[in-house]
Amino acid sequence: SGNYYNQGEIRKKELEQSCCVLGIPASDVTVIDHRDLPDDPAVEWDTQLLATLVLKHIEAKNINLVVTFDAGGVSGHANHISLYSAVRYNLCKLPWVPPWAGCRVLVLESVNLCRKYISFLDILISCLLPRDALFILTEEETEQAKRAMRCHHSQLLWFRQLYLLFSRYLVVNSLRLL
Fold first, then answer.
1. d(CA 101, CA 177)
2. Distances in whole angstroms, Cα of residue 92 to Cα of each of 51, 96, 100
């Protein structure tokens, strides 16, 4: 629930506001508040528990595409890495049975620090490197993504302000199939 600094309720509201900016209805947002899944960048979550919760969400929403972090978690955040591990666990364990039948999984590529903060200049590099999917946002989409990020007031520390200015992830995203 994003309760690392005891701000879980605030962060839930910020998530809803951010999703609204992106056109995602509140009914499609699921916040998990589980004592064994603490919001902590140093804590690895239990893979099987998280895999079960992710699978329930996929079944409940009849999801056919999952986009998640890769093994690097984009920022090295242990919770992000745990999410990748849980999705991979599910896919490797149950690849041809519902809800995975017909469900594709794309993982967002973690890039080195230099590439992460060269904004639109990374488009050239990303076009030259192998990947399964490449998403290049329009100027309007980039501005929408920034508005959505700004909804997370409680998390907009100085380094995230730099992220809003220079991150390639607000302009270009390379993904691979899992």
1. 15
2. 11, 9, 10
The CA distance from 38 to 1, in Å, is 8
- Alpha-helical runs (H) found in the chain: 8-21, 47-61, 78-93, 113-116, 122-128, 139-150, 158-166
Euclidean distance between the first and the last CA atom of the chain, given in angstroms as a whole number: 26
Query: Could you report the per-residue pLDDT of 127-138, keeping only the tens digit for each?
Result: 999 999 999 999
Model's pTM, two decimal places?
A: 0.89
Q: Express each pLDDT in 84-141 by its tens digit.
A: 999 999 888 766 666 677 789 999 999 999 999 999 999 999 999 999 999 999 999 9
Q: Where are the domains of the chain?
A: 41-110
